[in-house]
Write a structure and sequence with these properties.
Blueprint lengths: L10 E4 L6 H14 L3 E4 L10 H11 L7 H6 L2 H9 L4 H8 L2 H9 L3 E4 L3 E4 L12 E4 L2 E4 L2 H7 L7 E3 L7 E4 L5 E4 L7 E4 L5 E4 L5 E9 L2 E9 L3 H10 L3 H9 L3
Length: about 260
């Protein structure tokens, strides 16, 4: 882990914390060591069988620009409140029982998208949907990288020079032919998972390290540094197991799905 210092224009980009306070604390400490004072958060802040209350306290205290992820939205929907009332072991119910009204109000107030300095577009999934991958398509055979033409179609209404997205938990940076920079910082809190929508597929990074990135102004654009951070993933995995999610425990400890 480098101790390099960034200039005052550096921006740390976080996404998909998923209530993993242990990973978030390690990432924030790493950001401080690197001199990245500014930060943005691309959503899916607290959903998961971990420490949603501890996570949201840290995020609210910082006040960084934050957009809503699909699972932030789900927590604020009436069906999630029904899961809470049931008293069962569902993940939405578990999370909601940890959050106080002020924390839930903060979560529900998050915008779906925002633009920073007329230069950076921030959203969780795609400009139109918080539950759709920008950089992957999910086909019957699994998740596959989208081609440039399809990515350009999904970004047809976006004119900023930089596009920041999350949702697929996979670090990525690339330039489109028109020069726009697309950056996915990867996930702070969950390095692998399986999903059944719209078809069964797995996303994984292969190691349990927390991930984020730092953008630094450079001649003609921005430099992108993807960063992996060691943290106490065993504590996170043990918490997931205690809360009835052995699948999350395995993903957290291995980074494999």
């Amino acid at each position: 882990m480098s101790s390099s210092r960034h200039n005052d224009g550096a921006i740390a980009v976080l996404s998909d914390i998923h209530g993993n306070r242990w990973a978030l604390e390690a990432v924030l400490a790493d950001m401080a060591r690197r001199g990245a004072a500014r930060c943005v958060d691309l959503g899916d802040c607290v959903y998961g069988p971990l420490d949603p209350a501890g996570t949201i306290r840290l995020l609210m205290a910082r006040g960084d620009p934050t957009v809503s992820g699909n699972e932030d939205r789900i927590l604020c929907e009436p069906r999630a409140a029904g899961a809470d009332a049931s008293g069962g072991a569902s993940t939405p119910g578990y999370v909601l029982r940890q959050l106080d009204p002020g924390q839930l109000a903060w979560l529900s107030s998050l915008p779906r998208a925002m633009t920073l300095r007329d230069e950076m577009a921030l959203f969780h999934g795609t400009p139109e949907r918080d539950d759709e991958y920008l950089l992957h398509d999910v086909a019957p055979e699994g998740a596959v990288k989208r081609g440039t033409t399809e990515i350009e179609r999904l970004l047809s209404g976006i004119r900023t020079r930089v596009v920041l997205c999350g949702h697929d938990h996979t670090p990525f940076a690339a330039k489109l032919p028109d020069g726009r920079l697309i950056v996915n910082p990867g996930s702070v809190g969950l390095q692998a998972y399986r999903d059944d929508v719209p078809y069964p597929h797995a996303m994984e990074t292969g190691t349990p390290h927390a991930r984020y990135c730092i953008l630094t102004p450079a001649p003609g654009g921005w430099d992108v540094e993807h960063i992996t951070v060691e943290y106490d993933w065993r504590a996170a995995a043990e918490t997931a197991s205690r809360n009835g999610r052995p699948d999350w425990a395995r993903w957290l400890e291995t980074g494999c799905a």
